[in-house]
């Protein structure tokens, strides 16, 4: 169905990872579900899903959180896309991005994975990199900390103060992408903040 969008928040399963930087994609789809007073349910595609609407009478949204680890997210995403009949151009992947400063959101369709193994696996499973992405900036680690450790650390106390705003903005970006398209969402979210 052309008016159905699959919105996938990448992350790792389980309480150990819930509040880590790598799971910001899942925090965003949690926010989208909360705005609609919806609760995630287990799905046979090894994911938790919510079936809802952008707004009454609007596009259908399937919000999803894979139950797999980040690096093998592609299987659940591909299964969900097949189950709901969603083409890659309507599969929005929300994920953390090291190369974007914290508290910044960038949107794009296609391109490389930038070393993000979750995005790489989704592109492989969908057999194309041509899907929209909402990239939520987490910034690079300070000093010599390894990036792999950084993404699995919880947000710091300073970050936690603005995290709800960042998650809300990323959820807004998803909604605008669905409602008005990529260019409109980019124009809003790529502009410098006042």
Structure description:
Its EC number is 3.1.1.29. Keywords: Cytoplasm, Hydrolase, RNA-binding, tRNA-binding. Monomer. The protein is of the alpha/beta class and 194 residues long. It has a single domain (4-189), classed as Rossmann fold. The chain contains six helices and seven strands, in the order βαβββαββαβααα. It has helices spanning 24-35, 74-84, 117-126, 147-151, 157-180, 182-189; strands spanning 4-9, 41-43, 47-53, 60-66, 91-97, 105-109, 132-137. It has a seven-stranded mixed β-sheet, with helices on both faces. Strand 2 and strand 3 form a beta hairpin. Helix 1 (24-35) crosses helix 5 (157-180), helix 2 (74-84) crosses helix 3 (117-126) and helix 5 (157-180) runs antiparallel to helix 6.
Brief summary of the model shown:
A hairpin with a 3-residue loop joins strand 2 (41-43) and strand 3 (47-53). It is built from six helices and seven strands; from the N terminus they run E-H-E-E-E-H-E-E-H-E-H-H-H.
Question: Helices, strands, pairings?
Answer:
Elements: E1 4-9, H1 24-35, E2 41-43, E3 47-53, E4 60-66, H2 74-84, E5 91-97, E6 105-109, H3 117-126, E7 132-137, H4 147-151, H5 157-180, H6 182-189
Subunit structure: Monomer.
Subcellular location: Cytoplasm
Family: Belongs to the PTH family.
Q: State the name of the first-level CATH class.
A: Alpha Beta
**Helical content, roughly?**
25-40%
Number of helices: 6
As for the number of domains, it is: 1
Please name the fourth-level CATH homologous superfamily: Peptidyl-tRNA hydrolase
Strand content: 15-25%
Structural class: alpha/beta
Order of helices and strands: EHEEEHEEHEHHH
Question: How many E-type strands?
Answer: 7
CATH-defined topology = Rossmann fold
Unreliable stretches (pLDDT < 50, length at least 5) are none
Corresponding CATH architecture = 3-Layer(aba) Sandwich
The largest pleated sheet is described as: 7 strands, mixed
Neighbour order of strands in the largest sheet: 2-3-4-1-5-7-6
Mean pLDDT: 94
Ends: how far apart?
39 Å
Family: Belongs to the PTH family.
Binding site for tRNA: 17, 69, 71, 117
Site (Stabilizes the basic form of H active site to accept a proton): 96
Site (Discriminates between blocked and unblocked aminoacyl-tRNA): 12
């Amino acid at each position: 169905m052309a008016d159905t969008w699959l919105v996938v928040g990448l992350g790792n399963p389980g309480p150990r990872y819930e509040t880590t930087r790598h799971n910001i994609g899942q925090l965003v789809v949690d926010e989208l579900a909360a705005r609609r007073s919806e609760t995630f349910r287990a799905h046979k595609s090894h994911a938790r899903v919510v079936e809802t609407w952008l707004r009454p009478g609007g596009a259908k949204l399937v919000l999803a959180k894979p139950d797999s680890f980040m690096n093998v997210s592609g299987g659940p995403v591909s299964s969900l896309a097949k189950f709901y009949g969603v083409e890659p151009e309507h599969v929005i992947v929300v994920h953390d991005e090291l190369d974007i400063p914290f508290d910044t959101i960038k949107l794009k369709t296609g391109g490389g994975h930038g070393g993000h193994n979750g995005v790489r696996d989704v592109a492989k499973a969908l057999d194309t990199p041509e899907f929209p992405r909402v990239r939520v900036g987490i910034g690079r680690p300070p000093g010599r900390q390894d990036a792999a450790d950084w993404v699995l650390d919880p947000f710091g106390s300073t970050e936690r103060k603005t995290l709800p705003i960042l998650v809300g903005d990323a959820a807004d970006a998803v909604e605008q992408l669905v409602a008005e398209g990529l260019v409109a969402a980019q124009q809003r979210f790529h502009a410098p903040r006042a």
